[in-house]
Amino acid sequence: MAALLSPEDLENHRVAHELVRLKLRLPLVNHLTGIHIKPLRRQWNRIHPNSPPNGRLRESVRAFISDSFSAAELAGFVAIYNRLAPGAENQVEPGMLLRAMTMHERIAHRELDINAAYFAVRDVRAKIVEWRRCGRCQTSFIYSPAAFHMRSCPFCALLS
């Protein structure tokens, strides 16, 4: 007989299913939900026609920012996440990640790579990168002197 899951466990599995559906890398889903990688892999194979990506995870949001548009889009996502989950905790809440993804898609009318979104929130919350306010337009953005498109406000760059 199968063991009954608590409401919290059911919600955790629902969140994991949605994260897998959105193609969050399985080690990240495992980290966020605590669900073992094997059932996550089986779930991936049931949902997606291709195998889950292998290889090393990117280390930082810097790897996902290739131009001013991607920098602005990820800054917008972090702003949504921070609005939904204010506070200084430096861990990413999986349910809030899903809520922020839904809200971002409604506002932007386009999908965002959930892996990039995860790393953006994680890096800002863990202070791996800075969350700065532009002196010109007053919009917050992801700042890092180590990445060209993260050295100044991407919103101002897109306007010029």
UniProtKB/TrEMBL annotation:
One of its GO terms (biological process) is positive regulation of DNA-templated transcription. It comes from the Bacteria. The keyword tRNA processing does not apply. Signal peptide: none annotated. Keywords: Activator, Bacterial flagellum biogenesis, Cell projection, Cilium, Cytoplasm, DNA-binding, Flagellum, Metal-binding, Transcription, Transcription regulation, Zinc. Transmembrane segments: none annotated. The keyword Transmembrane helix does not apply. GO terms for molecular function: DNA binding; metal ion binding. This is Flagellar transcriptional activator FlhC. It comes from Sulfuritalea hydrogenivorans sk43H. The lineage of its organism: Bacteria, Pseudomonadati, Pseudomonadota, Betaproteobacteria, Nitrosomonadales.
